[in-house]
Amino acid sequence: MGLLTKTAESYYNQSQSFIGNGTLTEFTLTDTSFPTIPTAKSQIKVTIDGKEIGVGNYNYPKVGTTSTIQFTGNTDNTDVLESDGRVKNLLKVIVSESIPKEKFGNYRYVSLNDLVNNYIVAFVGDGKIISNVKKSEVLFHAKRGIQEFSYDISRVEKIQEIEIGPSLSIPMPQDYINYVRISAVDESGIEHIIYPARLTSRPSESVLQDNDYDYVFGGDGALLSSTPLTGQRFDEFDVSKLISNNKDSSVTYDADRDSETVIMPGGRYGLEPEYSQENGLFVIDELNGKISFSSNMSGRIITLKYISDGLGTDDEMQVHKFAEDAMYKYITHAVASTMLTTPEYIINRFRKEKRAAMRNAKLRLSNIKISELAQVMRGKSKQIKH
After folding, report:
1. Does this model's pTM top 0.85?
2. pLDDT under 70: residue ranges of the chain
3. Kind plus residue range of the DSSP H or E element containing 293
């Protein structure tokens, strides 16, 4: 059987269409036309001949797995419906989701469920590579494979757009593993990279001390702490004294100077690129799961590009078809290496096959195009420009 089970109308419009014949009042929805058949009237929109039908003119009962549109009247829709709800002859009825749920491009991926089932069919059984293994074990190793592939091979960058508030900090995304890039967005929608601040940090606590600078302990002997001042001072610091737009490369920061204008680190010749810009700075507070920004970022819009582990939601648990074979090799090596009876030379063979397949998958997913590579080369050498 073919892999495409949905209609083209379902994929592009997430809708199902019918043609009235002057007698029909009921139309049944099918699962080949929707990713998931809507379960309530509030989830659908009905049009006839391009005109939206009021919700009072139809019912939407769901009996078992069957959902049916039942037209009951023609209030404000007399040009397309009869008084008893019959759709006039040859008029097109379209039922669509009010909020589309379909994610385009899913054909590129193999779901976790299909991946596990395919593996058990092809690799597990008498006379096969793995004679016997529980499905739960295959599922575990498949999830671990999705995690590992998300970090290095088939990583998909997620992007959040956030406006920085007066607190100058934002929480890490719920499924955050590591950032790829943080950028400030200008009025034209162009992104400008924000660099991490290496001259400050976000201490998790400040040790409480007495007037003699000795540590203070509580009644239970635990070390007492207070609110750190490092982050607070950096938030209040005028970062323009530290960051330059290169108009005056002789300016740097000196904490002991009283002048409002300070001197750039390194002067013109040792100029640090991360400070020779006006995009701002950020500091990651790993312990509290927050990202803090310099004082000049308040009210500005940033984009946070980050990677996850691919296990955050059910929809994410999938593998790109370019990496499908590598995933099977990964699972085979993982399963075999946990069995005490597997000879070492077999484990080494599976390891080599896994590494070769993972390299191949990484090359495929690098998405290098000859035409794009040629454009880059033409920009580097005038000899081959034409």
Report:
1. no
2. 1, 63-65, 102, 240-275, 380-386
3. strand 290-293
User: What pLDDT is attached to residue 314?
Assistant: 79
Q: What is the pLDDT of residue 205?
A: 84
Phi first, then psi, for residue 171 (nearest 5°) are -75, 150
Instruction: Specify the pLDDT at position 10.
Output: 76
* pLDDT score at 164: 94
